[in-house]
Structures are given as C-alpha cells and as structure tokens.
From TrEMBL:
<keyword id="KW-1133">Transmembrane helix</keyword>
<keyword id="KW-0812">Transmembrane</keyword>
<protein>
    <submittedName>
        <fullName>EI24 domain-containing protein</fullName>
    </submittedName>
</protein>
<keyword id="KW-0472">Membrane</keyword>
<feature type="transmembrane region" description="Helical">
    <location>
        <begin position="21"/>
        <end position="45"/>
    </location>
</feature>
<dbReference type="Pfam" id="PF07264">
    <property type="entry name" value="EI24"/>
</dbReference>
<feature type="transmembrane region" description="Helical">
    <location>
        <begin position="145"/>
        <end position="165"/>
    </location>
</feature>
<feature type="transmembrane region" description="Helical">
    <location>
        <begin position="215"/>
        <end position="243"/>
    </location>
</feature>
<dbReference type="InterPro" id="IPR059112">
    <property type="entry name" value="CysZ/EI24"/>
</dbReference>
<feature type="transmembrane region" description="Helical">
    <location>
        <begin position="171"/>
        <end position="194"/>
    </location>
</feature>
<feature type="transmembrane region" description="Helical">
    <location>
        <begin position="78"/>
        <end position="110"/>
    </location>
</feature>
C-alpha cells in the first residue's frame, strides 16, 4: 500500500502525467465546487428528504427526546446545548463529505477519458518491457458502472435515516462512496491493462493492497478541491499495481 503511494507521488513530476493532473482542476475548480455543494444542499431540504416517512418518524422521536431531556431539572438545558453542538459539527462534516462526492464524480468522468494515456505514461516510464492488452468495451464498462451506481444510490435512499445517527452516518456514507469509487477505478484501469482472466483474479475487494491504497487516496477527497486530483492519483496507483502483477506472468515471445 505505502509502496503504491510512493510510486504515485514519484510519478507526479513526470510532464506527461503532471499536465493531465491539472485538467480536472482547470475544468472544474469553480463550477464543480459551487454545483457540488449547492446541489447537495438543495437535495437535503427537498420534499424528497424532508417528507420521507422514515425521516418524519425520526424527527418526531427527536422532538419527544428533546422535550424529555429538557424537562430534567438543572442539567436538561446543558445536555440539549451540548447535543446541539455535537449534531451541528456532525452535520457539517457530513455535508462536506457528501458534497465532495459530487465534485469527485465530475473529476472521475474527466479522468476516465484520460485513463489510456495515463496508463501509457506509467507503462513507458516504468514497465517498457511488460506487454499489456485489456479486455471488454467502453459501453460494457459504462453499463457496469451505471448498474453499480444505481445499486449504491438505492442503498443510499433506503438508509437516509442513518444521516441523523451521529458518527454512524459519516462512516456509512463514506463507505458507500468508497465502494463506488473503488469499483469505478478498478473497472476503468483493469479493463485497459489486464486480460479478463487476470482481472478477475485481482479485482475482489479482499485484495487488500490496492483496496487500502485506494481507500487512503479516497479519504483525501473530503478535503475541498483535493477530490479533483484523487481519481488521477488512483489511476496511477492501480496502473503500478496491475503492471507489477502482470510482470510476474510469462511474457509473450518477441
């Protein structure tokens, strides 16, 4: 995992990679930031969320709990004040986290058009003697991403009440975002580099080296604007991992 990060960082000084790193940044630094957090804010106050039966039931329970706690002599008000601060902090963290997903998604789309050239840059610099040929088609990959994204969106909608559970909400929705991000990058890079048989061997979530490396990079996406660069980092890291893996296989004769 650490080795992949170090290789990724060392590649950032390469001109062929460096200028591609800033394409998502230049394309989206203003527009995506405003739209990303703005759309999430509108979504959270929309009727779809506020009139959701599970959310309404939680709000009713929350109001009853506030009345019960507020009725406690002497310390009831202090407890409510403290809980209010905690909820405000958690809501702020969760808002930044989920808002950053929209920024990351836009950057992923842009980076997807550069995957082939990024992979080639890593290959030519570090693995010129390793032959590679991918599998599948662009439309096949898009279909897989749309299906997986639909499943993640459905799971998100079903678990909307978890937004109001402190700590659990941040962990749960970070995990949902990570699963989609990992699936997308693995599909994108793996389809460019590996034959289908080898890809099936390394793609499982339990393959911890790339999973932990991508997870560490994904955590950076919560930082404002950093998410614009994370997909490029992930593509480079996975390219190194897949080329290393491919280099252990017998190479075709010249």
């Amino acid at each position: 995992m650490v080795d992949l990060w170090l290789k990724t960082l060392s590649d950032l000084k390469e001109p062929a990679i460096l200028w591609r790193l800033f394409i998502p940044f230049v394309a989206a630094i203003i527009l995506v930031s405003l739209m990303g957090y703005g759309i999430f804010g509108v979504f959270m106050v929309s009727d779809f969320v506020t009139q959701n039966p599970m959310v309404e039931e939680f709000n009713t329970w929350s109001e009853q709990a506030e009345q019960t706690i507020g009725a406690i002599p002497f310390i009831g008000t202090i407890i409510l004040w403290f809980l209010g601060i905690v909820m405000a902090v958690i809501a702020g963290v969760l808002g930044v986290l989920l808002g950053s997903y929209l920024i990351l998604l836009f950057a992923m789309i842009i980076t997807g058009f550069m995957t082939d050239s990024l992979v080639k840059a890593v290959h030519d610099k570090h693995y010129p003697n390793v032959s590679y040929s991918g599998h599948g088609s662009m439309w096949g990959m898009i279909g897989k991403l749309l299906w997986f994204g639909f499943l993640m969106l459905l799971l998100f909608i079903v678990t909307i009440p978890m937004l109001f559970i402190p700590l659990v909400n941040a962990v749960w929705f970070w995990l949902l975002g990570f699963l989609f991000f990992r699936f997308s990058v693995v599909q994108d890079v793996g389809q460019v580099i590996l034959p289908e048989k080898l890809f099936d061997e390394v793609k499982p979530l339990g393959n911890w080296t790339p999973t932990l490396a991508i997870g560490g990079l994904f955590m950076l996406s919560a930082l404002p604007l950093v998410g614009l660069f994370v997909p490029v980092f992930a593509v480079i890291a996975l390219a190194h991992y897949y080329f290393d893996y491919l280099s252990t296989m017998p190479q075709p004769a010249e």
